[in-house]
Amino acid sequence: MKIKIFNREICARALLATNSSCAESSAEMRKKMGIVYFEQDRVFKLDTPHTSYLIGIVDEENFLGHIYYGRKLDEHRLTYLLRTNEAPFVPSKNSRERVSFLDAFPMEYPTHGVGDYRESALRIRTEEGYQACALFYVSHEITAGKKKIPGLPASFGKEDECSTLEITCRDQILDLTVVLSYSVFETTDVIARHVEIHNGGEKKLFLEKAASMSLDMDNRNFDMITLHGSWARERHVERRRLCRGFQGTGSLRGESGHQDHPFMALVTANAGQEEGEVYGVQMMYSGSYEIRTEVSQYQSVRWMAGLENQNFRWALAPGETFYTPEALLTYSARGLDGMTASYHDFIRNHVIRGEYKDKKRPILINNWEATYFDFDTDKLLSIAREASELGIEMLVMDDGWFGKRNNDDCSLGDWYVNKDKLRGGLACLVEEVNKLGMKFGIWFEPEMISQDSELYRAHPDWAISVPGRAPALAREQLVLDFSNREVVEEIWRQMKTVLESANIEYVKWDMNRPLSDLGSAVLDPEKQGELSHRYMLGVYELQERLVTQFPNILLENCSGGGGRFDAGMMYYSPQIWCSDDTDAIERLAIQEGTAMIYPLSTMGAHISDCPNHAVGRITPFETRGYVALAGTFGYELDVTRIPGEDRAQIPGQIALYHKYNDLVREGDYYRIASSMKDHDLDCWQVVSKDKKESMVTVIQVLGSVNRRSRMIRLKGLDEGKQYRIEGEELVLGGDALMYAGLQLHNMKGDFVGRIIHLISI
Ligand code: GLA
Fold this sequence. Notes:
Blueprint: H1 5-17, H2 21-33, E1 35-38, E2 43-47, E3 51-58, E4 63-71, H3 98-102, E5 122-126, E6 136-144, E7 162-171, E8 176-185, E9 190-199, E10 205-218, E11 222-228, E12 236-241, E13 245-251, E14 263-268, E15 278-284, E16 289-295, E17 300-307, E18 314-316, E19 321-323, E20 326-332, H4 335-350, E21 364-366, H5 368-371, H6 377-390, E22 394-397, H7 425-435, E23 439-444, E24 448-450, H8 454-458, E25 477-479, H9 485-500, E26 506-509, H10 531-549, E27 554-557, H11 567-570, E28 575-577, H12 584-595, E29 603-604, E30 607-608, H13 621-628, E31 634-636, H14 644-647, H15 650-666, E32 668-673, H16 675-678, E33 681-687, E34 693-700, E35 710-712, E36 722-725, E37 731-733, H17 734-740, E38 742-744, E39 752-760
Parallel strand pairs: 21-22, 21-31, 22-23, 23-26, 26-27, 27-28, 28-29, 30-31
Antiparallel strand pairs: 1-2, 2-3, 3-4, 5-10, 6-7, 7-8, 8-9, 9-19, 9-20, 10-17, 10-18, 11-12, 11-14, 13-16, 14-15, 15-20, 16-17, 24-25, 32-33, 33-34, 34-39, 35-38, 36-37, 36-39
Bound molecules: alpha-D-galactopyranose.
């Protein structure tokens, strides 16, 4: 549905002046649509439930300026925030200081080379080698709903759930059209932004940078929060002061990565879990990216998120359009908790799709840490038999079932069953597993190729590499050139054959090395800079085929653990393996950082054997269970060989999963205490949307003597409700639990845990 801009404007103006019925109906419409253009003031106002975002068109030349983003306002007449009444004034009043204007004005989407020396969102080079580019407002359109972005994952919403503003800007000289797209959502404080860049001229244009979003704000004493780590230590929270000059996070790896994360928050210095202002941005993208800040000479912050631009160079032929990935912006006036709540709801409602969107996931047992490559049909069936009796619902066969793969040196690219290991074939194994009442899942690493593989021997040029230079190996493997259609088709052919050969209900899609030696045998020299992004487009296309042609399959993404854990991947898979580190204590920090922006329902979390394979630590089986219950929940161990007392606990853990999983998947999540801060106590809470039930998980990392019993203050409860604490006589008011606190008794020992269940009466 398209909204007629003219009528909306008249109604919007009437609304300010009168109480007429037009004003009332426009108030309704305004409430509904969330986006209004005030023609007289030349201001766009975008509203979410608690935030407003204002953009202004300025001066005769139609500069597009960023006015305001923050707490929701009724007022739209805020153009004074652009400070165009201060020297050097706008160019039409003071053309001799045009550069000073351009270098200070809060640009909505800044360009390169004409006098704004701050970081630019768009950098273009012409065939002649010039870089100057200037964009001016031309027109706009406001529509209900949200379009797809061709080839890319993108958030979605129906016409009554969201509305979209598209602002068209042009550089007349380059014959370049840039459409800035903003979607606002009815029930969540997220604004989804992306940009479309169209070459209307007769010559090629080379995009050297094309950010998904840019935001100019005054620096209100901001700190920066980012997520960092390494393999098996992903997404630890890091906070630092925002300083002058450039700071940021990014990846050149062709995947969002273990080391950095496509997310950044700018928070006021006083911001904590519950207080202060928090701005968040995350990329809905799984490849190389950058998120950067620049604090200028005037103490303004320019904040930008998009594709990385060291390798990136896109040749845009006449008539072609380039689409940037989407950036998801949020603002919270109630600290980190507010940002977390918005992102969780948004991802659950507007990013995750498919059969398992709102559904409980089968409890799986994965054989990786149980057997590594050393398994056969009998071994897998012995695990399945024992597991099914304990209540586990799905067997996942991990790496090692294909080609001649008995170690990680070979066979990637040869996706046919190794009949020496799976005697009788895959269908036979799956039938046997199904007979036990269990589902069956399988592991693939579709993007990779081993040099020791039939595929590589037939097509060495299908690996990403630069001619004449031996490409760097990682885990003895190379990366397939997914910008090459032939490659994508062949891998799909192989995968489809396997998936159609048996009743497969789950796929774990792995990716175990980053990209290097960027070179494609099929791209023209001027298009080699497109490889990294085209690779991602190929991956997305294959995942889209998988989820549309096999809609019953539950897809779990993975990348050497959590190296590609991002909202882009969540568009295809409702869950992602969080980390190869399954140690319950290490997982506390990993899951805390992950849950800061992603819902618990997306976090792949399993109970594994001890001493833990990654860190060698021994933790109680019970505690491992509590930590895994905060995610998708499953097992990654040889259930036939673990100690009897551990095995005996499994039915109880499974009962806990069934009891709490609806709450974990659908509820509001709160961080109560962080072991990252005091190496002592970790605590998180989930509250049902109706506030009738809550689950609190406490993990004591280190026991200590001679201290009064611990108190934790809960969150998110109904002040007016009384809550019964299961297993205790105690009934307490929501207000007491939140403002006075709950006492934790008898927490003795290291690595011990507990779940506290509150039910309103
Ligand atoms: C990656 C994954 C693991 C496992 C192995 C198999 O490391 O993260 O879970 O699947 O690959 O090689």
